[in-house]
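Known limitations

Files may contain more than one protein. Parsers should not assume a single record per file. Below, a two-record file is shown to illustrate correct handling: read the sequence, read the token line, then continue until end of file.
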Amino acid sequence: MIKAALFVLLRCWLWIAPEVAADGEAALRVLSWGLAVLGAAALLVGGAAALRQTHLKPLVACSTVAQVGYWMLLLPIITDPEAGDVAAGAVGGAVALALSHALAKASLFLAVGTLKEIHGTDEISALRGAGRDHPVLVLTMGLAALSLIGLPISLGFLGKWQLATSAVAVAQPVIVLALVAGTLLSAAYLLKAVGPLLVEAEDDEQPVGPARGGLGTVPHTAQGVPLALSLLTVGTGLLGAWTDAVLGVGAPW
């Protein structure tokens, strides 16, 4: 549903906006920058809200607000009179980020939901050291986090790289700064989510608690499906040129 709104926005900007740009180019630029500012605000506010969470599911939900902000940053680029072919790279980057978010966020919610079913809670401090007993689920979360942060070899990195290089090409450093700020916040709150699950010191006073939820043995599908989704975020990043070509099918350029 979130991606459907992005699709409508892109349709308006790529198919309709060029038809009215001649009569209202200045207004279109103001509108695009207004939405970009709101996107940057979403990056900061959503990231800060995620960083304050003490439970995994609200943290993952708040991060969606931040991730959506990236998509708005492409609007000033594609409405720039000097954009030219750069606009295609910006749109491709935004679409790659949307696809990366869909895969990684679905993977995260499934993994987190399974951990909550097992232990009866998704409180981060109560799940400390869960990686010892559930390495596949925690590995899944780590791979999904890698793409949401935008680290190399992931689809998230591909999207951010295209968006950042397009912003540089049209001399928009503010957009690059917003991308960097959002990336740092993403790294902070996702490390807060995944880090404690991997840490279990010998003198730890809060090891992971016993299973209290409805799941006894974790079904293979409950581990395999989210792992497959998170692996897709890495695989599509490794096949960057192919992924970019697929995402460009049907584009207006």
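...continuing to the second record:
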Amino acid sequence: MGDYDLHHHGDREVGPGLVDFAVNVRLPRPPAWLRDELASALDSLAAYPSTEDAVRAVAARHGRPPSEVLVTAGAAEAFTLLASAFRPRHAVVVHPQFTEPEAALRAAGHAVSRVVLAESDGFVLDPALVPAGADLVFVGNPTNPTSVLHPAAVLRSLVRPGRLLVVDEAFLDAIPGEAESLASGVPGVVVLRSLTKTWGLAGLRAGYVLASADVIERLRAVQVPWSVSTLAGVATVACCRPSALEEAEKLATAAESDREYLVSGLASQGVDVLGDPRGPFVLVRVPDGASVRARLRDAGYAVRRGDTFPGLGPDHLRLAVRDRVTTEAFLRALRKIL
């Protein structure tokens, strides 16, 4: 894995008394209507879980047949399933991005090639960088931690006969209109979705895979029985309802406004915001980033270190988007440190 800790995530940065700018979960807790639905399901926990209702709900949400849906214990389980179900000759991960895909591939014994996008180019994806012989390719959209949203047309150009393109859309529902999504179905493309970011469900583990029926069957064959809990299934059904999708769109619009406020405040302090951020987080580079991160921690703020992402270094920090009041207090603390 080189010098990168691929298993380091933002939750390691947080701690008692710290304001969390390190974890990209938008809500501090699930909304009341979702908590009520989960609570109402507690009496059913003696029975083994079934994902049939959740599969139908996801299929209806995306206009795909149920045979093209697999509900998972969060998007992270899907990475492990893909690494177990397939035997790629040439696996490629486009970095900087969420590190669990590469970690899962390596744990399954696969060699991994890295395509590292350049900061100087705004981390824009150039399809020509992906080797023609790659038969399993992972890319995030919008990408964590760069917050760059790749055009759907660029991603579709990566599709090749004999290649499986895996697009991690864990944060796509935080983009107004879910722009550039491939969830409606593209041959040769696997789309991963998460419910944890928008709905405050990181502790519940809820996500799903959208792919052709033959790919779904291969993934289901290696999935641990009952890996998706009853409560995760209930949450999946609830979050796929039209009323929930409407609420998610409002949350995405609010996140966009809050992100612009954060970016403007950082720019006023001369902080470099990298790329063209579109997700509910931004990537910055500051001199002596490790020291800045430590001093922010002393001031009561947790931010995500960047040097565990291939292609980034200790001067890179990822900042989650928060509401304006919380952001303004953070910017005041950062101003004192800088």
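Parsers that stop after the first record will miss the second one. For reference, the second record is described as follows. The first helix runs from residue 32 to 40.
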